[in-house]
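COURSE: Structural Biology Practicum
ASSIGNMENT: Worksheet 4, Part C
STUDENT ID: 0417
INSTRUCTIONS: Below are two proteins. For each, the amino acid sequence is given first, followed by its structure token string. Answer the questions at the end about the second protein only.

PROTEIN I
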Amino acid sequence: MDKADFSFLFRQSEGTISAPLWRRWTLVLTGLCVALAIVWKLITPWTERDLATQGLFDLKAFIAFVYLLGFVGVVLLAQVSQYNLSAKRCRAKSHAPGWAGVWPLSAFVAAAAFWAQPNFFGLLPAFVPWLFLAVAAAAFCAQFLELGLRQD
């Protein structure tokens, strides 16, 4: 894939693409987001601090929050790219391109539920984020089946 194709795929939602191309880039973008999320999950404990026993500045906490900034930026760009890829594939299958936002939106809602649950002080039961994650996984599977595996 040359630079012009890369720019076209990730910056615009116009046009159409084939199922194998959509599958390949969907797996790349999803794998990237999952890998970044796993790293974030591993370094999240670095952000929990007690100022009564620790100093004001902690290098690990600083690194974790800098990573969080980069993580959020990359995930946002990856999901915009995913929408553009899916919109192209929806057009190729004669579906409304608006359906391309189902998977990225469900992923963001699931991520928001996982963020909100510990910050809502018991108002949101612990199982709720997992329900949202199950819905997001179902949306991914349905979109992958429709756009990536079914024939035009």
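PROTEIN II
(use this one for the questions)
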Amino acid sequence: MIPVMTMEDIHDATETFARYGVPADRIFSEIMRARYLDYVLFLNPANQQYGISIEDLYDNMKETAEKLGMYEGDADTYVRVYTLALRVDPMAFAPGVSPMEEEMKALVAYGAERAEKSGKTVLFSGVESYLPYAARLWDKLADKRLAFVVESALWKKRLQLLFPRCRFLLPEELSGDEVRYDYIFHGSLTGLGEEKQLLSLLADKGHMDWVLPYEAFTGSDERSADVRNKIIQSGRLSGYYDMVMGQREYAFLRFDDGKDSVSFGNMDFAEGTCHFYEKLAMPVSSFKEAEEWNYDVYAYNGSPALTAILSGNILQMEHNLGQEFEEVKKEILPAGRHMVLSASAVTDSEIRRDELKPVVWDEEKEGVPLKEGDLVVSFHHGELHFLPVEKGEEYVAGEGVFGIRPKAFYTPWYLKLYLDGPVGRLFLDTMKAGEAYVFSLSRLLRLPIPSADREKMADITEAARASISHLAEAERNWRRVKRESVGMMMGHPMM
């Protein structure tokens, strides 16, 4: 069983390797060598029954020197290196491997569970997106005929040494693959790639899951359209879910044989596990006929109230938030004192001064600057709050804080009043998984909004500004009364 290694475990193992004459930059090579030797040597039935001598192990190590370099220690010490190398998680020492998003861990674990329940042949594609989990897959699916698709020829060589009983393919080699897979997992964090080939590699009764960037999957380019057409032709799409990972929106597609309907909904990752919340289901035949890939269409059709609003042309999907507002992008901000706005400091009526976080930067840094005229979007503990930045205020967005800036005469007050109102909340609620929001700015920018002229905009803006000011004052007074009352109850009237 591959261990889950903490930072302390990695540190201790690194020190032990060093005592055995293996510096930190050589550890991964020794792990690859040990795993390769373990596989090759124990293919021999005699070695399986009687084991191998220290001298045989050392001699076989020398034969790998051209590929993996020479271990300079003696035979007795190499046995310790070999034993330790087989005990650790290889990917904890792999060069250039970035930590995985927690959401991706949950997705790959979900894929592994689906693979366990499927037939013998299993393929995992887009492996560079979840390299730290590769050893877990090898361990968990030891009884499967396991194959991986990797983008890099270098990683293909490395992984083949680490997991020699598995097959490794480059995307361009898929067209010649004759295996039909009972389960396929494809996790792409960058764009579209080998999706068309994967569809043709799925066994008749097989299952498949894809994770794709939403904007790439729904794009208007020829490649995106070609992939979508292949999906329609396959007739095997059984689920289309919207999910967020690392503040980016993704489409999660599930393929199953023999399903007569397609489910649409939101995903979340509560407690590190994938959860699916269906908003709408429709017959496969109706989905094929519609040929509609805009996820929002299905999300809104799952709400009778929104269906009535849109079908009655009260609002049009074509006039959305992104037409009148844009995301406030990151900029290089100067060194100096900055007021960092945390998500917890933003309420529906005010920015809590007692929760502002001033910081001093010794050098330039990247950040999202928020200024007068911007609408602050706060996402905290599954809740959304919207508040315009007042005159004279400037902030740097902290974690869970985003900015939306008007393109023309629409104001943040107008947008706040709409999003906090009953119709705006109906649209926002389509972004919920259970009781919590699954938030992505890209999806927020696609929400339909009502049209207004400059005169109406000015009237609504003034009314909203005055009302929020009164509400903020009332809430401050209520907090003061609670604080002072509790102080008196506890015998400290000045508390």
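ANSWER KEY EXCERPT:
Q1: The chain has a mean pLDDT of 90.
Q2: The radius of gyration is 28 Å.
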